[in-house]
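Exercise 7.
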Amino acid sequence: MAIIDDSKNGPEEWSIVAQNLPEHARNPIHTDAGAQAAGFPRALVAGVTTYAYMTHPVVDAWGVDWLQHGGGEFRFRKPVFDHDVVMCKPTPEVDGVRIDVITSESVEPRAFFHAVRNAGSVQPLRDGEKLKKSTYVLGDSFGSDYGARAGDDFAIYRDTGIIHPAVWPALANDVVYNQVARGSWIHMRSIVRHHGIARDGAIAELDAVVVRRFEAHGERAIIDIHISVEGEVVASLEHEAIVALPGR
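Solution. The predicted structure, written as tokens, is:
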């Protein structure tokens, strides 16, 4: 089993060429044609993939402990486009670290992630519109190799079979796609809290509640999510997306 060196002072700058995964083409915004129809120059990279890149320097510095107990909040300010060079730049904070995503097109962050070492205990789902329970086998599109398929072949996942942290918001996005969104939609932000480790082959159950809908550059939804394996919550999220673009 690979051991990540947790003796580093903190996350270090890291870069990669962004790319979309095949399964994201079901959301037209992640294709050139769909993005151009929505007014963008080319395909937007899925937000969860941008998040996957932002977690690399965090896991490289903090290791398995962060995958089991850590978390944070990430937000998308501007799109990352397919084949952009993504630079993940860390800045230490009192309670953790901020990771900014910079591309060659702008020095302004396109996304940022406030990562913390300990995300705290599981909070109950809030009241709202309860969605249909979903069940997933963790593997393939939702497995340890999420990062590798997006260009980041990080040994900790390859050698241990630990599910990549980007899978948790990816599962949330699957619920948005199947139960909430109408046509093209855009993931805006998430708060992710890790409460345990899961590995390839595990069965995950997802409970979700839409706690708020509102208008802001389209129809938005805020969703509370619990992801459980063998009856124990391994990740919880507050997930926000534009579920219907303006005029749809």
